[in-house]
Input
Amino acid sequence: MKKTELLQGNEACVKGALAADCRFFAAYPITPSSEIAHRMAYELPRRCGIFIQAEDEIASLGAVIGASLAGAKSMTATSGPGFSLMQEHISFASIAEVPCVIVNVMRGGPSTGVPTHPSQGDVMQARWGAHGDHPIIVLAPSSVAECFSLTVEAFNLSEKYRTPVIVLSDEFIAHLREKVSLPSSDEIELVERPKPAEPPEVFVPYRDPGTGVPPMPSFGEGYRYHVTGLCHDERGYPTTRADEVEPFIRRLFHKISRDLDKLQWGETYYTEDSTLNIIAFGSVARAGLTAVKTARAKGMKVGLLKLLILFPFMRRKVTQLMESSTTILVPEMNMGQISREVKRVNQGRCHVETLNRVAHEPIMPQEIMHKIEEIYG
Amino acid sequence: MRYEIGIAGSGGQGVILMGVILAKAIATSQELFVAQTQRFDPAVRGGKAESSLVISDEEIDYQGILGFDLLLALSQEGCGRNIEKLKKEALLVMDSELVKEAIWGKILKIPFTKIARESFNDERVANMIALGVLTELCEYTPSSAVKASISSEFKGETLNLNLSAFQKGIEMAKGQKFNFETAEEEEGEI
Amino acid sequence: MARKKHVIYKYLRTTKRFPSIWCPGCGVGIFLGALLRAIDKSNYSKDQIVLVSGIGCAGRLTTYVDFNTLHTTHGRALTFATGIKLAKPELKVIVIMGDGDAVAIGGNHFIHAARRNIEITSIVINNGIYGMTGGQLSPATPLDVETISSPYGNLEPSFDICRLAEAAGSSFVARSTVYHAGHMERLIGKALQKKGFTMVEIISQCPVHYGRQVGLNSAVEMMKWQRDNAVTDDKAKGLSEEELQGKIRIGVLVDREIPTYQERLENLKESLKEKAVAL
Output
């Protein structure tokens, strides 16, 4: 029988990171993510890993990228204001293709906002906050158990695609304690970054092996290659040539988009015969599920799609749901960020309704139920 | 079954710790699920501090509060903020020294802070006395599990002190037959 | 007769053809020669060395040399270097920065790396100007100097980068100029051998953006200025306060034994060993 325990969302992120063999963690204190740093500061030195409290969030992610280049699976954690400071290095990790995991526990914004209350206001910052056109993977847990499993998956995806992966948690989930039974280490599948098969003399560091993801040696393994934030050719050296830059940036996108079918991570509830469907993520998805069950009890044909991956946006699954829906309802704790994505892929298939909240208080199931009744007429 | 407990007070009273202790105790049960959340102000001492628990015999969808079955109020503001979240038949337990006004049907008034001061010479253990009362009043929190949970939070002398305060609470809840005040009487008082 | 191949060729990347991006007369190339000679005399292998740079003219240096090289973001080279060193302590981490890079945008990282006394050899190539972006003032530009962003003269006093590193906790601080090429090489060599955070400031020249602003019209004139204004410790002893005004003190300025971050970390690991859990 599995061991059950009471865990906080932030603690579960730490357990997930350790289960994924995270060896390096750097962060700057910020509510409501600090528990992740506290736990890492305790755990990592005992496991011969490294914890460092950086001078700011820019340094946190810089150190994380450096450690990853040296071969250590690395992570940082922050909240909105710190996440803004990290954008510079998210951009760097994208172009230099350095695996790293960033946990952003969203709190009320903009600016210092309401530090101790939840929000989902950083969805678009996670997608587009970093400068330049770049691909990104964003995961969104809605429970303590998912804080664990999605942190493990964040490491796996980041290693597999050599790209920064963001775990977009929120204060409600981060500080929530739940009874969970986590899988044991032999039940967890880990992915490691691809390594070069050829010797250093003939190794071309950024040549596409066909998967879009070039093998990645660590510093000190004899490969002596160049890593830069400048657009670079296959050898890693700066280039401004259009015939090199264009295919390079396109490869960065393509290495993830070619697997779009595999990245439709969402859970559907009661969607077999539903015509009104809720699309939600994070803590709001749970209020959504309660509302759906209440509506079902009243005989209404309502379903739910919970998004576990926000970006790349799971257009396949969403459009599939739209085909059988008359209305899609998108409740979220912001002025409408994921609903923009829903509307973008909708293309007139169905009617899209939103339910937004920016008072940094959770959206209650009753409110969603109220909206359902309104739509139902 | 879905049963919700709220604890509302101010920073420094151990409100969040009480919630965690109860949640831990419930988590040891085979049959029950538990979700514990909290609300607090940035100020570590003073300011809002609230902790709530959802207990269920099935997986918990909505992790927040739909309506309290049991509310412990340890400050006037905390009581005021949460009284509207009580279910119809819910029980309000309050520290009668700290909460002066409350309009509700089923109220249990106990001067936790005063008892802590007089019996233990330490106001800080008011929360453990209250925890004992909650444990006894709630059917999903076996006192042995809560005791084990307390033991995982404290050490040495502090643990002994907290355990005796907790025991005091259990006995107080056991030894009394509560006469719940009616809303009319309460209104009359105010 | 075959010309003897200079030692630096061992360290230049053959896959990346020169010319470099540096303008004629730039001091960075002279510095690069000194750095490679100093490395050649040290015991470090090419595989062991990680050369990290920031953004700016000096930042491009990492492109050309055959080590593990990392060209980072503006001002943040030390943060990446910190991660590398902590994750893989057996690597020798050397960080090359410019003056704007190190003490303007990277000032916070600079003082904190020094405070931690983390095992990184850092070098600040100080030409007193932002060269790559077109000649704006930097925190190392002297007062009153006219630049493209201080057309009426610089209103801001400049940093003494060596004193900054010293005050922040660096275990070794030294200064040289590109004119004093041999001296520069020896100081870099010493810094490479020293434990903890070491900082060598190299006074360099930007004839394109700085020289002409102060009436020094060529790289040669600027290097002559370095020659005439640099003062070694021995020389300084014979000079009064007034005579030392405006001069550049060169040589080892700080060399002290203070515990390094790595030493403290090793102690911690040792003390936790008994409690260590198998992963």
Notes: Chain C touches chain A through 43 residues (CB under 8 Å).
